[in-house]
Amino acid sequence: xxxxxxxxxxxxxxxxxxxxxxxxxxxxxxxxxxxxxxxxxxxxxxxxxxxxxxxxxxxxxxxxxxxxxxxxxxxxxxxxxxxxxxxxxxxxxxxxxxxxxxxxxxxxxxxxxxxxxxxxxxxxxxxxxxxxxxxxxxxxxxxxxxxxxxxxxxxxxxxxxxxxxxxxxxxxxxxxxxxxxxxxxxx
Length: 187
Description:
single chain, signal, DM9_repeat, disordered N terminus
């Protein structure tokens, strides 16, 4: 009986693929964990700030126009807060999550643009960082600017809203070329 169940699971996995979106004990891919200083030991490194310090990928919940949204953002460990990339920079100091993995070598950044990313969406597992009030999935991206790797959100759409976005102290940044975070299974 155990052999039959194992074969069914194996066939299901081969046909439908892996989906790693749960608690970290449930899979080997990636997971969102409530942020604590201890989370940094297995957190996914996202970029660097203006002081060349490592930043991490975070996520928090909000209600916008009566709809719950998940907004991704940049975690600055020295600040113990997340700065979200919604329409403006917003600091959140509690009740947010951090992207973690038990296998950092499975996390990979791909250079792409607003057209090529549509093909990548069907070829590899892109990391979803949230969802906006229009039910659009938000992916994790970054760009190099002033010798920093700035984390931001990526929207994959068929209109002018497609691309990479982030908010900095000097204003909003939108780019049609960026890196996007993915989860790649390795042997």
